[in-house]
Design a protein that fits this description.
- The structure is a homodimer of 232-residue chains.
- Chain A starts with a helix and ends in a 9-residue tail after the last helix.
- The first copy, chain A, is mainly α.
- The N terminus of chain A is likely disordered.
- In chain A, α3 packs across α4 and α6 packs antiparallel against α7.
- The first copy, chain A, has a 3-stranded antiparallel beta sheet with strand order 1-3-2.
- Chain A is built from 10 helices and 3 strands; from the N terminus they run ααβααββαααααα.
- In chain A, 39% of the residues are buried.
- Chain A is elongated.
- The first copy, chain A, has 2 domains: 75 residues, Winged helix-like DNA-binding domain superfamily/Winged helix DNA-binding domain (Arc Repressor Mutant, subunit A), CATH 1.10.10; 140 residues, Up-down Bundle (Four Helix Bundle (Hemerythrin (Met), subunit A)), CATH 1.20.120.530.
- Chains A and B meet through α4, α5 and α8 of A and α4, α5 and α8 of B.
- Chain B binds a DNA duplex (30 and 30 nucleotides) through α3 and α4.
DNA sequence: GAATTTAAAAATCTCGAGAAAAATGGTTGA
DNA sequence: TCAACCATTTTTCTCGAGATTTTTAAATTC
């Protein structure tokens, strides 16, 4: 059962033009090339993305699920705006949900889960070594996402994982604004490694505490950015 | 900032045909007249709802946000399936989120919030007196939703409230399958009243415990339904 | 000079028709 | 009898064009 469009969108190949446009738009919004608050004029965008107007409208409708696009009545679509308040809310909610999911995952996860986790960490570490280059950056982003995903993979609640995938996506958008300026500000590798160790040794309290700190640190590093950067 | 289509959809009047179709479809899915798992053929439905094919597709795309509709690749749309597992997950997740939101609401809510809460309870109680009739039933459903909404209204987290509105909608769908058979099985009124008292007296622990029990009781009453009723 | 009104321009919203894919059903062959 | 195959039908997906609404800009009035 595919709960969300985003969940189905990440794994398989796009089979329709709507799906392709949906992904391309999502990427551009998360990357920031489509600026927060910007008006999304269908007549302009349909040329950029090489699809018809109806198709693009449908893709934009799907992006509302992810709260990356907002629409109001008869006034078209906009890129969802950003604010420090919003990111603080995202961070708080994510800490709450992701810690709970992690505890359940640690409690339930079997050997196969452990193996997946170690593998995901290893792939992430490999990408961390070579720190520069934009396609390497994309690779790191993807592997970081997967590491966090695998951490909570053994949690049995589909809904918890669904909400977390939305929040992760939102957080990534803010994080990119930060890292764009200060490339790798803190030593994320050590945080990830400690988190892995705590999870493997089934120390749920410690793992949850580290995860909370990890997520909150990302918030603080974005918070440090001058307010003008966050185009209100 | 309107986070979701559902949030914007509930208050104001529909300004576009997409919005109208979205609401009509949502109502029919929650009510159950569109059966879980059923294929949603655009060519058929566009006549029923009096809109064009593209418009209906867009409305269906919006319903994916609410996880009331699922779509896969080149095979069209379906009403989201139901299962006891899913409802159990919804219940657990909702208990977790709604209790947390209630605690925050109780901690932060001011006199105006209290007044709104008492008013919402009163309106709900009025609807509870006259228990029969289908339009009265609709009214009760609406007021019940508002009561739960006002309970957590003072919670400052938009995301928590956003997720809860989705979960409430999902739960309502399951609840209707139950109440259709056994009209008002337990004395919900007493539960609501005790919940109100605990909230007003700022007893967060007690209120959260009652809310958890309240939500879980609904799950158990659906659980009691024979499995054949839940069209898998 | 500022505010209201009016007209033009742009954008959104909507529909119907055509191309591509999937589901259907009957036929053939082992 | 069963399975594989092909033609037909249905359905999904996609596009371009027309009707409303919003936005923009100029013109008029006070």
């Amino acid at each position: 059962m595919n709960i969300s469009a985003s969940a189905e969108g990440l794994s398989a190949e796009p089979k329709t033009l709507v799906e392709s446009a949906y992904r391309a738009l999502r990427r551009d919004i998360i990357e920031g090339s489509l600026v927060p608050g910007e008006k999304l004029r269908v007549e302009h965008l349909k040329d950029n993305y090489g699809v018809g107007a109806g198709t693009l409208r449908e893709a934009l409708s799907l992006l509302i699920s992810d709260a990356l696009v907002v629409s109001q009545g008869q006034r078209g679509f906009r890129v969802a705006p950003v604010s420090l308040e919003d990111f603080e809310d995202i961070t708080r909610t994510r800490v709450m949900l992701e810690c709970e999911a992690l505890r359940q995952s640690i409690a339930i996860g079997d050997d196969a889960w452990e193996a997946d986790l170690v593998a995901a960490f290893h792939r992430l570490a490999k990408a961390e070594e070579k720190r520069i280059g934009s396609e390497v950056r994309e690779e790191w982003e993807e592997r970081n996402r997967i590491f966090h995903e695998v951490l909570i993979a053994a949690c049995p609640s589909r809904w918890l994982k669904h909400f977390l995938s939305i929040l992760y996506q939102q957080a990534e958008r803010y994080r990119r604004m930060s890292l764009y300026l200060q490339p790798i500000p803190r030593d994320i590798h050590i945080e990830h490694e400690a988190l892995l160790q705590a999870a493997i040794s089934r120390d749920a309290d410690k793992a949850a505490a580290m995860l909370a700190e990890h997520i909150q640190l990302t918030f603080r590093s974005v918070q440090a950015i001058p307010a003008e950067q966050l185009n209100k």
